[in-house]
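Journal club prep — side note

Before the paper discussion, L.F. wants everyone to see what a predicted structure for a comparable chain looks like in token form. Sequence:
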Amino acid sequence: MLNRVHIQILDNPANWIPGTDSGFGEQEQNQLIANELRNDLNYNYPSVTSVEYIDLFNDDADGFSEIRELLNQGIITAPIVLINGVPKIHGGIPSTLIKVEVEKIISSGPLH
């Protein structure tokens, strides 16, 4: 069996400041990128990959307190991409780089 790859895109739409253009529309754009990535990976690696978009400041988004704290301190910037639970990328959703990481995991061999 191939290694499964779970990608989580953690976003911070609460970072949008009302009355400014800062971050406006960015959540929708990030959701669109996440959906395109999901479709592409599902096409190329059916039943092996999953992509999840998560609003970090939604009441349903539990379990990311450390990442929220790093965001609040300005150490990292949203969106944050986790691959199999490990933070890999922050500040954007580079689909090409994510696909390279997915390919590395899948090609590393079957689960034991």
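L.F.'s comment for the group: DSSP finds three helices and four strands in the chain. Keep this in mind when we get to the figures.
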